UniProtKB/TrEMBL annotation:
This is 4-hydroxybenzoyl-CoA thioesterase. The lineage of its organism: Bacteria, Pseudomonadati, Pseudomonadota, Alphaproteobacteria, Rhodobacterales. Pfam families: 4HBT_2. It comes from the Bacteria.
Length: 146
């Protein structure tokens, strides 16, 4: 399978942790939101432009997470975002988060294209849908390997 995932690193900062220095899960979700925002910027659709200029957004309509190992203040975490499915107006993503070779947590997220003025769903603009589909695995598998 061709790896077309988006990968980026984040440092686990002091403010992301509880008193014991362990990652606090709401901070994980805030960091994840930043990773998703970075993905949209890298593919050419920064949120500040689509929100203010084009008046559409990508709200999360579903999110599930599994936390397998704790992370600690100072850990460098690698976030891997994989596009699993591009629908008419939705996008299903898989997230895996590692520290070195050790997986720390994973999750799935569904985003929906939404008109910001009417708060209703909308189909992806054709060029956006094509760009998102370019991140689908070439072999058509629904789950990333490894």
């Amino acid at each position: 399978m061709t790896d077309v995932s988006f990968t980026t690193d984040r440092m686990l900062n002091f403010g992301d942790c509880d008193i014991s220095g362990t990652a606090y899960y709401p901070s994980y979700l805030n960091i994840l939101n930043g990773v998703v925002e970075e993905f949209w910027t890298v593919i050419g659709y920064p949120w500040h432009e689509i929100i203010w200029n084009e008046r559409w957004g990508t709200p999360t309509v579903h999110l599930s997470c599994d936390f397998s190992k704790p992370s600690f203040f100072g850990d460098k975490l690698t976030f891997r975002l994989t596009v699993l499915k591009v629908g008419k107006s939705s996008l299903r993503l898989r997230h895996t988060v590692h520290c070195g070779e050790e997986q720390r947590w994973s999750g799935e997220q569904v985003l929906a294209a939404s008109h910001l003025d009417t708060h209703t769903s909308m189909p992806w603009p054709a060029e956006v849908k094509a760009k998102l589909e370019s991140f689908l695995p070439a072999d058509g598998m629904d789950q990333p390997q490894g």
